[in-house]
Amino acid sequence: MADNNKVVIIGANGTMGAGAGCVFAGAGYHVTMLARSADKAKEGLTDAQNDARAEAIGERISLGAYDADLGRSVGEAAIVFESLAEDLPLKKQFFELIDKSRRPESIIATGSSGLSIAEMARGRSESFRRNFLGVHLFNPPHVIVGTEVIPGPDTDPAVVKNVVAMLTKRLGRKVIVTKDMPAFVGNRVGFKVLNETAQLAAEHGVAYIDYLIGPHTGRAMAPLATVDLVGWDVHKAIVDNVHANCKDEAHESFAMPAYMNAALRNGCLGDKTPERGGFYRRAG
């Protein structure tokens, strides 16, 4: 990684993609933010600049679209950071494309919140699997410096060591290395709380729950507002993954509330859909 200063963000217009762009560019990397279209990538740039509270961060950010720019950008990058939706087939589709274009020594990191690292790497080249791992930033990454690094079964230990050093020394992250299990560690704890507050909100109301579990617990953001920031679709992907694949005393804490499933079907994703909102409606 030391001989190359280029990072590619896949899924740049998502909440975490834009946040990752802010973090990497803020650390001095030359970042290429890719999305379905140049306009979508520009939305990611705007969000990254808003996170940084500095338009100047854009001087280290280039924009592109998957169809036109993915192969070239990936081929030049030292680090490819994937930040697509928590959809395993979608991620694997892009990893197949990345595997064809990447440099043999480049690092491929998924920002997944808790999907299987081993499964995402299945079927990829030996070089890809050796250089592939999870780098889970927490939302919002320009505020929360905690970061999980999750090796896969074939990840080279030297790659893990180098990535941890880069995250710690250059990006100012507080890093823990975790095992490859559903929701890893941070979200296994964090989304238990978030989903329980969502369950309780049906009975006690959003404002009361956020007031009770927000400022009185020292959180950077109240829990239901956090779910809106993360996105209801991402929240569902995380809690459904744990609920389906883990059986323990906390099992029912990860059952997605029925009212949230119904609202999701009607297009309520939280902050991503300001007109429809989530627990809060930001429009106007």
The CATH class assignment of the largest domain is Alpha Beta
The general outline is globular
Count of DSSP E strands? 8
Give me the CATH superfamily of the largest domain: NAD(P)-binding Rossmann-like Domain
Number of helices: 12
Order of helices and strands: EHEHEHEHEHHEEHEHHHHH
Named CATH topology of the largest domain: Rossmann fold
N- to C-terminal distance: 45 Å
User: Uncertain spans, ≥5 residues at pLDDT below 50?
Assistant: none
CATH architecture of the largest domain: 3-Layer(aba) Sandwich
Strand proportion, as a percent range, falls in 5-15%
Helix content: 40-55%
- Number of separate structural domains: 2
Strand order of the largest sheet: 3-2-1-4-5-6-7-8
Describe this structure in words.
This protein is an alpha/beta fold. It has 2 domains: 6-177, NAD(P)-binding Rossmann-like Domain (Rossmann fold, 3-Layer(aba) Sandwich); 186-265, N-(1-d-carboxylethyl)-l-norvaline Dehydrogenase, domain 2. The protein is built from 12 helices and 8 strands. The chain has helices at 15-26, 38-52, 66-76, 88-101, 117-121, 126-130, 157-169, 186-204, 206-213, 223-230, 232-245, 258-265, and strands at 6-10, 30-35, 61-65, 79-82, 107-110, 132-137, 146-151, 174-177. Strands 3-2-1-4-5-6-7-8 form an 8-stranded mixed sheet, sandwiched between helices. Strand 1 (6-10), helix 1 and strand 2 form a beta-alpha-beta unit.
Question: Key features?
Answer:
46% helix; eight-stranded mixed sheet; alpha/beta; N-(1-d-carboxylethyl)-l-norvaline Dehydrogenase, domain 2; 284 residues; single chain; 14% strand; 2 domains; Rossmann fold
